[in-house]
UniProtKB/TrEMBL annotation:
The gene is Gdpgp1. InterPro entries: GDPGP, GDPGP1_N. One of its GO terms (biological process) is glucose metabolic process. This is GDPP1 phosphorylase. It comes from Crypturellus undulatus. Residues 1-75 form the GDPGP1-like N-terminal domain. One of its GO terms (molecular function) is guanyl-nucleotide exchange factor activity. GO terms for cellular component: cytoplasm.
Length: 75
């Protein structure tokens, strides 16, 4: 119920089933494209973009809302 018709769901197995974290050896470690990163998002996975007010957040023009292609739960 509600004007946006959104659902929140608790997933207690999230910690046990999620993808392992990438090892961080240094704050200056080089970018490794073989590990998960958001440059791998395909255009078909983008649901929509949220535009920010330019004066409030100058480094970012927009925020992507994307499909989770490997969800742990239905939906």
């Amino acid at each position: 119920p509600g004007p946006l018709r959104l659902v929140a769901q608790l997933n207690p197995q999230r910690a046990a089933l999620k993808r392992g974290a990438q090892p961080v050896r240094s704050l200056a470690q080089p970018f490794d494209p073989r590990h998960f990163n958001f440059t791998q998002i395909r255009p078909a996975e983008v649901l929509f973009r949220l535009r920010r007010a330019p004066a409030r957040h100058p480094p970012f023009e927009h925020v992507l809302v994307v499909i989770n292609v490997s969800p742990l739960e239905r939906g």
